[in-house]
Amino acid sequence: MAPKNQPVSGNDLARFSGPGTFMRLPFSNALQTLDVAILGVPMDIGTSWRSGTRFGPKQVRSESAMIRPYNLQTGAAPFDSLQMADVGDLAINTFSLSDSIRIIAESYDEILNYDAIPVAIGGDHSITLPILRAMAKRHGPVALVHVDAHADVNDEMFGERETHGTVFRRAYEEGLIKADKTYQVGLRGTGYSAEDFTEAAGWGFQQFLAPELWGRDLSALGAEIRRDIGDAPTYISYDIDSLDPAFAPGTGTPEIGGLTTPQAMQFIRALRGVNVTGCDLVEVSPPYDTSGNTALTAANLLFELLCILPGVAYR
To answer: How far apart are CA 268 and CA 245, in angstroms?
Structure first.
């Protein structure tokens, strides 16, 4: 058996040098050789408030150099188990949201022709709609775990139907997701009407508002969702603004009263055993957090997601 790709060790090469890939993994576009393809979608033309998520993939990759390959807290050894590589950034059209959505969908169609699980670094949340379109073509409607401050079920924003705030209404309307196996975790903030959340609940979405989760260990919630999903193909979409801005201020639409980083880790770890067919982490806007802490948090949550992918061995 060929050896698996490993991140460059900080004991072999200083962390502030080396390749600018996620966790300093090898770069590769040989999708047929990979179990997991990590990619960037550097885009912010779908956002409605603060821009800057086009810089998210680069900053998240930069901060990921700090992460070591073994999860000492859970025993996960993702790089010993699965062949992973960073396949670079999608070449979106920075002047056209509609064209970028087309490019993302077509790129994912190609990636999913192989058996690699795609893991995307955003970019604003509008990237998830074309990803789900490709996922549904490959797997049929998928279960969805959506961690976010916002339900993202607007009908239109400024007359546009495909933006970062309309993703999951479109996904529901187009039959890309299983409504009764869609879980929205961390919702909070203000709205335009009472229906901002309740309409999606009427479709069958299961919603867990942040105030209900304050002070709770989220391991039990994650385990409950895992049992409910069963073996259904599942997509995980993680918006960094699900975290309280005290933990992740570098995002486009921050909302106070959010989840903590320990809760985020508890929740992801409890999803181990879910049939994850793809995932993303979106809405990191580095210009709004010059410390780099938001991107560092995002990089670690991506590592946690890698640790729960199907086939990962635990020591």
So the answer is: 19
∠ CA(149), CA(201), CA(133), 5° rounding? 75
pTM over 0.70: yes
SS (H, E, C) 260-288: CHHHHHHHHHHCCCCCEEEEEEECECHHH
* Degrees, nearest 5: CA angle 264-268-273: 170
The pLDDT profile of the chain, 315 residues, written as one tens digit per residue, is 678 999 999 999 999 999 999 999 999 999 999 999 999 999 999 988 899 999 999 999 999 999 999 999 999 999 999 999 999 999 999 999 999 999 999 999 999 999 899 999 999 999 999 999 999 999 999 999 999 999 999 887 788 788 888 899 999 999 999 999 999 999 999 988 878 888 999 999 999 999 999 999 999 999 999 999 999 999 999 999 999 999 999 999 999 999 999 999 999 999 999 999 999 999 999 999 999 999 999 999 999 999 999 999 998
Which residue is listed with tokens 């955003």? 122
Q: What are the structural domain ranges in the chain?
A: 29-307
- Name the amino acid, one letter, at 117: I
- Angle at which helices 56-63 and 293-307 pack, to 10 degrees? 80
Amino acid at position 220, single letter: A
- CATH 3.40.800.10 for domain 29-307, yes or no, is yes
Q: Among the residues of 91-233, which ranges form H helices?
A: 97-111, 128-139, 167-173, 195-203, 210-213, 219-229
Residue 279 and residue 182: Cα distance in Å, rounded? 14
How far is 68 from 10, CA to CA, in rounded Å? 8
